[in-house]
Amino acid sequence: MNWDSAEERAGLIERVGIREYNRLFAIYLEKITVKVNGYGIRPVLTPFGRLFAVMDGEGRAFATQVEAESYAKGLPAVN
Predict the structure, then answer these.
(1) Is the distance from CB of 53 to CB of 42 less than 8 angstroms?
(2) What is the count of structural domains for the chain?
(3) Of 19, 26, 31, 62, whose CB neighbour count within 10 A is largest?
(4) In the chain, what is the straight-line distance between the N-terminal and C-terminal CA atoms, in Å?
(5) Among 60, 54, 62, residue whose Cα is nearest residue 78
């Protein structure tokens, strides 16, 4: 499953329904998200290409995972 493909995601919704799709998508997000200092970091596809988003409520994203992790390490730790 290519989660970056809108066509594949739409096909999956049609095959399994929205509830199962949401469950599978949550599993996918859990697999691709790393935690640094209590903050999730995951790749996101944007008009600027693939970036690494830090789930800190500020909407920040970085060109590399190393940059995102460095930023997260400087934030107050959360549980």
Answers:
(1) yes
(2) 2
(3) 62
(4) 31
(5) 54
Rounded-to-integer distance, Cα 54 and Cα 62, Å? 8
Tokens describing residue 14: 């049609």
Segment (H or E) for 12: helix 6-16
Give the pLDDT of residue 79.
Answer: 78
Q: Are residues 5 and 41 in the same domain?
A: no
SS3 per residue for 27-79: HHHHHHCEEECCEEEEEEEECCEEEEEECCCCCCEECCHHHHHHHHHCCCCCC
Q: Is the pTM of the predicted complex or chain greater than 0.70? A: yes
For residue 1, the enclosing domain spans: 1-32
